[in-house]
């Protein structure tokens, strides 16, 4: 008896105290206090990066001076500097495959220059899609080896041009495959080191480029261009995979040139660079949350033929488009852009979806120039590197609402029967902006609506208004309420209710707080993330998949951040896993660090809000932007409490990453959900007509192509470490059974 | 002193365990529910928790009243959850599924509790 009493007491105490632990990992209320004195005072005019003579920061953990030399390994191939060239001397670009792909090809990341993700193929239809079978599987060979942290999410979309399927591995090896068998025709290994992996080992794709200078039949007439995690721009011959000797230094350009102090993994590239009128435009991600004076988010143009530097768009040096010389560098901490960019040869523009200035959750140290262009679409003139127009999707963003999606180009029906060249810009907020791509003016109405301001952080007021795209269906659910809390039982539901009530929350744009957590919904995973949208220009149907994944954030004082061991990646004490992008961050150089988790029950691993967590929506763009159909995306089969798969076919709607393809056959192909399935959906009804289980998470944009008279559907089942789906190195390609006989 | 827990059958032990579980859940409800109410949230958990603790204690003591208190709490839970979210299966799942499963066990325990009460009454008569 005595023993059972004891057990009961222990169990009782454990259970009963659980509510108290709802905020255990967060700073207790009242621990806010005033920031330590060793950090910049936002009230003084200190929003400029340190000079060469600025004394070193006094906080316990701090990154080196921006003038410190780059760490060994940052310039991975030890490439010499590249010279500059006058943009006016860029030769006339030859006609590109991506401008008008052959009907069976998929010539660019989003199919063609419009990035519509639409294929005119129609062999596979809603009637026969249920017969799809695996045609072949290709292993890229890139996955975490023993002893390596799982930072993998390949996110790759192959391109198909002529007789080849071209793709990259998660660590940037480039390969050409036979599109009917998956047999490797060539493979070019670039020997990227594990340390170069930033937040994620991803390579979304490669770019196909036809030279105007090298005659047909010569090596490097057709080339594959790739940007890498370790900041190289590489061109190889499409026929052989050999480096192109006339590009850069034997086929490679070092993009760390002019970046100043950095370490491997701080800046990296994961998207295929667009080539616009002969200019290869590159952007890069800068690891979030590290330090205010992180490396620059500069956007640069290079000659696609020679790899020579053409221009830079450096936000805080708006009138200087040249490469820094000597010990100088591009201005630090400026908004970075990590999403795939879209080129526009006709207008001579590249549409850059931008992110946030470094130190995402604290904006007092940002310059007015940065505030104008962060979390925006910026149309850069590829001749000069100057913005022609800017459209901002979140003002003074402190919610990590950087744009992850690629802009899609399409023609909108205009008032006078003419079509307007338009650009569709999805955002993490679930607001989809439709802009005139000639001047950036909204085609569908955009309203500036009051937003919670000024907020509570001293010296860092929030914008009094924020833009809302009122002409498009919002890809979000209403603001959360206590009764939206969910769980397996009333016990975890109660836990989540307490968590909800303990946080600051006044709806979207709840300002950051230091005394207690705040709820961020929409979360930083979207709404729409990097999967972007697909658009069928014939039916006028726009396909969007999106997330309902709130976050639970709290600013912490420098003292508390030091106690938590938060430090920037370039701190000498930094150990991998000690805080990185998308999670807790030091935000060194500001008064605060940041603690971020999903808004979940950390004991069961289940989200606190009610399902669905992911949706797919079809919008009729030709008839008033009405929702044609909308339903949860992803089943509960591979998800459940404590990460256990439930095996349930219930279409609960899971978080999703990765986009869709729409075809003339009337089908939408999409993986993305965390149930590790690929499915075919009837474009007009939303009915799922086929699904198959992948060997890993389908967090990648699928693509479709024709080879040997048959239509194929390919998806990289690379998985995603943050989405907690199984990582694999397999590209899976499906086709209808071959009826040769 | 005669040992009242002496010759317990398996079902009687299970009933005791069930009572303890209900007390634990009730305590969680009371403590968490009090916090939630103080934060301006629903008072359902606090009220329900008090009833559950009473229910569990009576069941541990071998009183049929405990079972009926539980069924009362369940009725309250259903009424409250239908008021809060309506006939939405997804939202009723966390609120009512577990409590209703537990109610099946509680109903099964009623004959056991009755037997315990009868035995106690007989012993009192001796």
Protein model, in words:
The complex is a heterodimer of chains A (741) and B (126). Chain A is mainly beta and 741 residues long. Chain A has a single domain, classed as Quinoprotein alcohol dehydrogenase-like superfamily (Methanol Dehydrogenase, Chain A). The N and C termini of chain A lie far apart (78 Å). By secondary structure, chain B is an all-alpha fold. In chain B, 83% of the residues lie in helices and 0% in strands. Chain B has four helices and no strands. In chain B, α1 (10-38) packs across α4, α2 (44-60) runs antiparallel to α3 (64-85) and α3 packs antiparallel against α4. The chains are: A mainly beta (741), B mainly alpha (126).
What does the secondary structure layout of this molecule look like, with pairings?
The complex is a heterodimer of chains A (741) and B (126).
Chain A: H1 2-17, E1 118-119, E2 133-139, E3 159-161, E4 164-168, E5 174-177, E6 184-188, E7 207-210, E8 222-227, E9 232-237, E10 252-254, E11 267-268, E12 275-276, E13 279-282, E14 285-286, E15 299-303, E16 309-313, E17 342-344, E18 349-353, H2 368-373, E19 376-381, E20 387-392, E21 408-413, E22 419-425, E23 433-436, E24 446-450, E25 465-469, H3 490-502, E26 518-520, E27 534-536, E28 541-547, E29 551-557, H4 558-563, E30 592-598, E31 600-601, E32 606-607, E33 614-620, E34 626-632, E35 660-663, E36 667-670, E37 677-682, E38 688-693, E39 703-707, E40 710-716, E41 730-735
Parallel strand pairs in A: 1-35
Antiparallel strand pairs in A: 2-41, 3-4, 4-5, 5-6, 7-8, 8-9, 9-10, 11-14, 12-13, 13-15, 15-16, 17-18, 18-19, 19-20, 21-22, 22-23, 24-25, 26-29, 27-28, 28-33, 29-30, 31-32, 33-34, 35-36, 36-37, 37-38, 39-40, 40-41
Chain B: H1 10-38, H2 44-60, H3 64-85, H4 89-125
Helix pairs in contact in B: 1-2, 1-4, 2-3, 3-4
Keywords (chain B): Membrane, Transmembrane, Transmembrane helix
Transmembrane segments (chain B): 12-37, 43-61, 68-85, 97-113
Protein name (chain B): Glycerol dehydrogenase
